[in-house]
Amino acid sequence: MSENAIDPLPEQVKAFLAKHPDGEPVYMLNLLKFKARATYHDDEDISGAEAYGRYGEAFAKLVASKNIDGAHSVFGGKMGAWLIGQGEGEWDAVAIFRYPDAKTMFATVSSEDYRKIHKHRKAGLEGQLLIACDNGNVFD
Asked: What highest taxon heads this organism's lineage (predicted)?
């Protein structure tokens, strides 16, 4: 069973930073569920997916403006059909983003510039699973 959420718990942040060493890349696997309608304070009537799209665009600009070496989107796409196993269709999209290390990732999403764009994420997301993955090769 999974628990859909918007923000990490303090103990999750602590465990994340402890598990991922400095200088080691971290890949963030995002499983995203959008609200049917975004919830902006001014009641702007757009879909949750559109609001999250604004967040994604602003986030890409933020990362580029900070010139974070090695940070980039690896993949993003709409959820397709279940091929192996079965789910309840709770995810609308998936994305993978690479950061040079965990501290850089956390500093980026804790910055004042990030707080300015976070409203689009919050307006558009019903919830998500965010899974931190290392660069280890499981097939060796």
From this structure: Bacteria
Q: Strand order of the sheet with strand 72-78?
A: 72-78, 93-99, 26-34, 125-133
**Which domains does the chain carry?**
10-133 (3.30.70.100)
pLDDT per residue, tens digit, the chain (140 aa), is 466 777 888 898 888 888 887 889 999 999 999 999 999 999 889 999 999 999 999 999 999 998 888 899 999 999 888 788 877 767 999 999 999 999 899 899 999 999 999 999 999 999 999 999 988 777 76
